[in-house]
Structure formats: C-alpha cells, structure tokens
Design brief:
disordered C terminus; homodimer; Arc Repressor Mutant, subunit A; DNA-binding; 2 domains; Tetracycline Repressor, domain 2; mainly alpha
Chain lengths: 230, 230
DNA sequence: CCGGGCCACGGTATTCAGTACCATACGCGG
DNA sequence: CCGCGTATGGTACTGAATACCGTGGCCCGG
C-alpha cells in the first residue's frame, strides 16, 4: 500500500516508460516524475540513465571473483563452471525482469553496447584467473588463456540468450553441457596427473554454496571423464 | 603549406588535446577551435566526440564482410584467417596512430567500452559466417559457431594488443600462428573430405589481395595439415 | 522537551554532447 | 550574371550529468 523504496519505484517507472515510449523517448525527468521523486534522487540511486537497467553488474562481478578465489589448482575448472552457472542463475532468478531488459538491449544499441562492455569485464576476470591457473607465463599460454576465457563467456552468453528468448526450458543443464564442451576443447595444463587410468578422484573442500548448486559439476567430473582430461 | 582538409586537422587537434589534457578535460569546442573550424563542422565529419578516435570501424566491417563473402565452403577457414589478418594489417598500417589510440582506450573507460562494442560487431560477423558455413542448424552447431567466433576474435585481439604494446616484432606471423592454433581446436564439420590420406589439395580462386598476404594461409594449409582436419 | 548531527531528498544552476535550423561563402557551369 | 550544390559557421535547443545548497525528517543523548 504505502510505497516501496525510491530505488525500486524508479526502476519500475523506468521499465514502464521504456516499454511505453521507448528508451530514447524517455527522459530522466519523466522517470523521476512517475516515481514521484526529484531528478536529483534518480541520479543518487543510479549513476546514469542506462544504469537503471543494469543495476548490479558490480555485485555480479564480485560474485564471480569470490567464487574463483575459493579454488585450488585442481578445482580451477570446476570453479570456472560454477562461476558461469552462478551468473546464469542470477539472470534466471530475475525472471521476467531479465527478459524485459533483453528486449530493451535488443532494440537500443546504446544499451546493447553497455551490456557488451559488462560482459567484457566478466571475460577479463576469467582470463586473468585462467592465466594464473596455467602458471606458465609464456606468450603461448597467455594466448590460450585468452581464447579459453572467450570461449567460456561465449558459451555462457549463448545459453543465456537462448533462455532469454524462451528457447531453453532447462538453462542450467544446457550451460553445464556447454561448459563441458568448451573445457573439452582445451587439454589440461602441466598439472600433476592423479594416479593412472580408471578410478575416481575424490576432492574434499568446503564452500558456501548449496550442494544442489554443486551437483552438476560433480556429476560431470565423475561421469564425463572431462573437466581436465581429453 | 596551406592546410590539410578539415577532417584531418580535426583528428590531429583531437589527439593532441587528448594527450595534453586528457579526454574528459577536452571539449568538442576545444578541438574545433584548435582545428580552426566551427563546432558544427566537427560533427559534420565525426558523429561524436568518441568517433574522432575510431574513424573507420564501418569500413573495416565492410572489409571483413567482403572477404568472407568471397569464399566457398572449402575455403571458409582460409577466409576467416584472411579476414582476421586484414583487420590486423589495418591497425599495423596505422602505425603510431593505432598506438596512441590504444593509450587512450587504456586510460578512458568510455573509449574502452566503445572499442569493445566495435569488436563485438566483428565477432558477430564471424559468428554468422561460421554458422552458415557449418550449415547444421542444430543448437549444438550454433553453440560451436559462437565459441569458434569468440576464439577467433580473442586470438586476433591478443596478437593485436601485443603489437600495440610493442611486444610483437612480427604480428602477422603471430596472428597466423594463433589462428592456426585456434582452428586446430575445432574439428571440421560434415564437409566432403577431399580424396583420402596424403596428397595435396589445390584450390584455384581469384582475389583482390596481394599474393604476399595470402601466402601464410596457403603455407599453413599445405604444411600444417590443419585448417580443416584434426 | 530540546538541540545537534546525520541522511535522504528536492531545487537550481552549470557544463557539455548532440541535433536542428538557417545563413553565408565558394566554386562552377550555363 | 544567375542558379545550384556543397562546405561551412552561428545560434538555439534538448537532455544527460554534475555541483551545490537548503530543508525536513529522525534518532539520540541530554
């Protein structure tokens, strides 16, 4: 009844107006007016007109960074898969909101460009992480890290966009399969190979994640025979 | 003695001022003033303040499109390599100008974002081309096309940035090697395999390019045994 | 009940990018 | 000399983004 906080009202008003009149045809004043706040308040909550569409990219970056940080050499690829799944789940959780955003970014090139720039920041995180993981400071390893990061992000985006278009009933399964396919492209680095052929490697570790969220990775590691080997 | 055309004077003035005061600290008026023209003239030659740094991305896009268009199914991967080399050569030909631009994009996030958006457009071209080439309309092929395009572009960017930083004495060789590495990651699609084992496939075609520019691709096709096979 | 600090908010003014419109000068063929 | 196209300059306007200031609520110790 009363009112949700200004931040929410502003976002609601923005999406509504963008739907009605289009992005360029909507001024920040319009948004502030409909939200019942002053123009100043808008910019207090969102750095720019575009930012109202992409509220929490920074938080998402932190999420990825954290997930990657909690990994050892042998669990690096699992961490990558997990981080990718994390991002996907974030959007899936947004539900209809993510789809409205997608509709906007599909039409307005300024927004599409901004989205792409954000994705590039994810990619950078992955690139740096993978390069560290490889250890090898040679130019060839650096190139491979870059390619691998690009492939990882491309796979994620592909599945995400499919879900956004309503073409994917089970995006989590799809992204796990896609990641499996991507990681299979790249042979494992120097790493100490565990034992010989056959058998199962058990890795014990502690994480803040739900077991459910981890299961797909575990299953893939055990069944797929991939994740490290070729 | 007289004066170079306004377009050039504007670009010179812009780069000079960006070096002196920085990008944000330079207004379009400043640039126009130093170039000795009116503010209107600036916007007649460049759509925006950022565009003065990236004059010919559209032309570059056309270049890629054209090169990809002049290819058959069996020469598709050569076309991709060529197109990538084309882009790299474009920047290398710019020489110091490209390096000044790189210095700017490294410091100013707005410019970096725009650069990234441009690269995404190249990537899209490659993605569509590769998807067409694969023919296969299944979701799995579509994913692979996306990953492949991302890998191709990542390889290019990697080499380009190395050259921009002065770390690559022979970027063309490097990019050819990088492309070779990338394409080797992906098994060939359905395509009709030519003959059996051994032998050499000769493909005759006509192109507007210098033979020198094509040689590396040819050599790779003959020697590497890759470009299609695994 | 009362100051005092904190904080969210609103309003005003300013800068600057980008667009629209109009006026002018130059070159060139009729 | 006239007509025409083109490059240019100037002026004015919209709108995003920033800076600054004032104000009203709200909590808290007195």
């Amino acid at each position: 009844m009363s009112k949700p906080p200004a931040r929410i009202r502003l976002a609601d008003a923005a999406f509504a107006l963008f739907d009605e009149r289009g992005y360029e045809q909507t001024t920040v004043d319009d948004i502030a007016d409909r939200a019942g706040v002053g123009r100043t308040t808008f910019f207090r909550h969102y750095r720019s007109k575009e930012a109202v569409i992409f509220p929490d990219h920074d938080r998402l970056l932190e999420l990825i960074r954290d997930r990657l940080a909690t990994s050892s050499h042998s669990t690096a690829l699992v961490a990558v898969s997990d981080a990718v799944r994390l991002v996907l789940l974030h959007y899936v959780d947004e539900g209809e909101l993510a789809r409205r955003r997608y509709a906007l970014t599909s039409k307005v090139s300024a927004l599409r460009d901004r989205e792409i720039a954000s994705v590039a920041r994810y990619q950078r995180l992955f690139r740096e992480f993978i390069a560290d993981w490889m250890g090898d400071p040679t130019e060839s390893a650096s190139l491979r890290a870059e390619i691998m990061a690009a492939a990882v992000v491309a796979a994620h985006n592909h599945v995400l966009r499919r879900w956004l278009r309503g073409e994917s009933p089970d995006p989590v399964r799809e992204v796990d399969e896609a990641m499996s396919e991507v990681l299979a492209l790249f042979p494992a680095p120097s790493g100490h190979e565990d034992g010989g052929a056959g058998g199962t490697t058990v890795v014990a570790f502690r994480t803040g994640q739900d077991l459910d969220a981890l299961l797909p990775s575990l299953r893939r590691l055990v069944e797929g025979g991939t994740g490290a080997g070729h």
